[in-house]
Specification:
The protein is mainly beta. The protein contains 2 helices and 12 strands, in the order ααββββββββββββ. The chain is 11% helix and 35% strand. The longest helix has 21 residues.
Length: 224
Amino acid sequence: MPDKPTTLPKFADEDKVDATSGQNNVVEPENDPHQRFGWDFKEQPPRNFFNWLHRWTYRWIQWLNTSFTRVHSDTKSMILTPLVGNFTSKGTGSAGALASGDLIFDMKWMVINDIIFMIIPPQGVYGQIDTANQSLALSPVGGSFPSDWNWTITRTASIITKEGNFYAPGAIDFYVPPTSWRIVTSGAVLNPNKISADSNKWGTGSDVGLIGQVITMHRSNSVS
């Protein structure tokens, strides 16, 4: 992604009346066909209209630059792994490390001001496990979360889990400091840093994991 520009295209930000024509340097084309159709073929655009367009382009960019002061996006490799037993096959979306019993996948993420968006791949991330009724752990490769994920208090966001054709609404808890996860389905036993479920959900012979989704979390206020 290109670096964020540092120069704002300031143009015609102040009013000035032309001494010869008596016209203002900026005129809004109110109720004018230009707002619907733009410039005509071979038309020489009125300078006042052009200046109006430049002024408000600059002011909107200036507002966006002020309102969204922190925009950063990247991709983080994540690990989905059983706490007991192993994955015996990969489901859609997992990228590797099956031999060690876990699944690795790339999760795209974006920070806009204090809101973090975490994107589970659209095809989902899941595989078959060889031990029923267990928990799965979700953690970043290397054990470290991106520095932008420096939320200050524990927050909860909604999430959807999967086993076979069963989709269960659940929650993901973000702890402080951001070194662990807790993802649970309805009726689950709450365990830090794990996807946990009651005995009739996680089982052998079906794909277990997360469906594709966008997880939204505010670093200072709960967003579901």
